[in-house]
Amino acid sequence: MKKIEPKLPKGMRDLEPGDMIIRNRVLTLIKATFEKYGYEPLETPALEYWEILTGKYGQEAERLVYHLTDHGGRHLGLRYDLTVPLARYIASHQHLLKPFKRYQIQPVWRAEKPQKGRYREFYQCDVDAVGSASMIVDAELIALTVEIFDAIGFKNFETRVNNRKILQAMVQAAGIESGRSADVCQSLDKFEKIGWDQVESELLQKGYTRPQISVLGELRLFSGDNFTILSDVEKILGGIPVGDEGIQELREILECLAAMDVEQKHIKLRPTMTRGLDYYTGPIFETFLTDRTFSSLGGGGRYDGLVGIFSRETIPASGTSFGLDRIVAALHEIGQEQTGSTTTEILVVLFSTELKSEAISLVSRCRKAGFRSELYYEPVKLRKQFSYANQKGIPLVLLIGDVEAEEQAVQLKDMKNGVQETVPLQNLEERLSEKLKRGKERS
Amino acid sequence: MKKIEPKLPKGMRDLEPGDMIIRNRVLTLIKATFEKYGYEPLETPALEYWEILTGKYGQEAERLVYHLTDHGGRHLGLRYDLTVPLARYIASHQHLLKPFKRYQIQPVWRAEKPQKGRYREFYQCDVDAVGSASMIVDAELIALTVEIFDAIGFKNFETRVNNRKILQAMVQAAGIESGRSADVCQSLDKFEKIGWDQVESELLQKGYTRPQISVLGELRLFSGDNFTILSDVEKILGGIPVGDEGIQELREILECLAAMDVEQKHIKLRPTMTRGLDYYTGPIFETFLTDRTFSSLGGGGRYDGLVGIFSRETIPASGTSFGLDRIVAALHEIGQEQTGSTTTEILVVLFSTELKSEAISLVSRCRKAGFRSELYYEPVKLRKQFSYANQKGIPLVLLIGDVEAEEQAVQLKDMKNGVQETVPLQNLEERLSEKLKRGKERS
């Protein structure tokens, strides 16, 4: 048998304990917040029928869907996102109680050209409400976004808010035919990254006139608080029906956010934000760090056309998505990530074969008190056992040797500062709680 | 565009909120216990190179691996289990600190014939320690198994324990050549299901002699506590080197379990248990309900040959696996599952458009206190809003109408008994905590 190289396919990765610990911490916060807002978990299978997945994402994207044939010759694909499976789920449950509020956190697969930080398998964390046209939905999605980024530990971030209807009205106001709206938005979308001068020359190149471009550019100049910006927008776009709609929707969202007591500094109205070329039809929102040049950490919006695609009806829907990989990268970048490389808090040393029972009792006692604890399995040299704790980043080591067994005590070593102390067994849990800075009961 | 049927591929399923809530509860307990024993999370990609996955599971199993070709023409497969990916991970990390203790909870795919309760995509929950030959590892795996099933809420279960070396020694004692050991074990494995008489006639049919079969059968007769059974086994198999080894290993495990204070009634030595035809080489264990005829809820054992398959060395390893689908099915069957169909605890009614801000403030306040709360988004008839709570199984409904807004109070309705009461806003959190039977702070 020839030796097989233990390699991973291109664009794939293992998520090692150090990665998983951060990811799990973030996901736990995200899930808890979703549920606090009344969203419930859903999972769909990785494999869907080929015809479900295709014809939804555009030709270029569709090339990235992994295809396979099942053993009965049916064509299947690996899911490309979580939105089309949601639409399929909605269509196959005609009598679903509405609004249907679900969150879904699962990997998706895309056969993209591998490049730094981009993988062919990655998690999407989506939260969507299906069946309500109320702007409270959109306001809640923004509120939970702010709550999540705050809980994760980001200080300087803002969730930018706009409405596709504002963009439509702006195109109208500039006297550009609505059919070219996507073309205009594609250029506008780059404003935050490349600045207005470059957007302007791109639009000129595309054949738009200076007066047209000047109207489009007006919206970027507004500043002040969100309600002020909205009034200024109204001065330009008021009277254009789709503009009035968009303004009214945004005003409602801002009012809801105020009633929810969401910190104003995290919400920023940006009338030029377009959020790509996606399927959005109303309010859109996207979160960025304000002190780094990271791209979006997540975003979403209202998309009243997509969820009904299989049932051929228009079902109002709004949702948002969190970019787990980008959030984790941002945490590393800003040095906010305090989590170590291990979940284990205590290593119990195996002093000798004779004292095996004592060591086992000790580690069991630590676990019963809720501490994540490991026992070294072989009675090898103590130096090797301490080095294991050190290399793994386990903060505390407990040792029960002959003297300690005699005296009903243990040696406790703090691996961070090297300080060692004798702790009477009767004070064990109390001392460990102090050292690990937390209440005794935690399981 | 022709209408596409929103169907799922055969053998695939959606995990709806009601399913997910139970699964998440079980998985949270499993993960917390794994970490309490010093195991750390790992995830590997769904897609592996075809040559990694094949040649490991036997021809019949291999037919069940989903195959696909990536966009560069490389052959890939969807992972069939979590053990081969672990072996691949170990081989590609030569300098990994040992023991490497990881848990991995991810779906696997098998193109099996769909049948009731068997799916083509299902989760495996594996926990394995790689790099230690110590019997403490195996004892800890048994201890954490008992702890998990106890925490989930099972009362009547036992983890059966044996050692492949006992089976080998028994085959020797019966005077059967060791090459036929698998053949013998295949029949013995059915003992618990079909009884000894049938096993006996199967063995006779296979050509084994009555004296041989009588030796094999002796082990099933032993009873009493585990140490007694072990002594009785020793009377028969003692002196056969592999038997002595197996007995010594089991004795060590039983001693460790005693030092860990694991409840004895959950541990049952079963010298006839073979645990299929898998790759095990030492201790094996498997958990069953004792008051139902459910099949195994999970099991594992020591497999010193498999993990080193890609590095061509023998690396000691032991691990166990929890059958999430079977655990959930068992919980339904014994009626232990108390979880409702929703995670949401409170529905706040939207009384009128005029009182929207008040309703929003109220739901925000509930969320800040850590209650999972939903706001009804449209000011429709109250009957419809209450019916929504009722259909979803949300236990409490809060209403703030004109009178309540005036009086700084809310109406609280308990949906289980229909009782409605007026609660002053200042007592809100306290009363909700009482109704939901828990401490106020929980986020």
UniProtKB/TrEMBL annotation, chains A, B:
It catalyses: tRNA(His) + L-histidine + ATP = L-histidyl-tRNA(His) + AMP + diphosphate + H(+). Its EC number is 6.1.1.21. PROSITE patterns: AA_TRNA_LIGASE_II. SUPFAM superfamilies: Class II aaRS ABD-related, Class II aaRS and biotin synthetases. This is Histidine--tRNA ligase. It comes from candidate division CSSED10-310 bacterium. It is an enzyme of class 6 (ligase). Residues 1-331 form the Aminoacyl-transfer RNA synthetases class-II family profile domain. Homodimer. GO terms for molecular function: histidine-tRNA ligase activity. It comes from the Bacteria. The gene is hisS. The lineage of its organism: Bacteria, Bacteria division CSSED10-310. Belongs to the class-II aminoacyl-tRNA synthetase family. InterPro entries: aa-tRNA-synth_II, aa-tRNA-synth_II/BPL/LPL, Anticodon-bd, Anticodon-bd_dom_sf, His-tRNA-ligase, HisRS-like_core, HisRS/HisZ, HisRS_anticodon. Its main location: cytoplasm. Keywords: Aminoacyl-tRNA synthetase, ATP-binding, Cytoplasm, Ligase, Nucleotide-binding, Protein biosynthesis. It is found in: Cytoplasm.
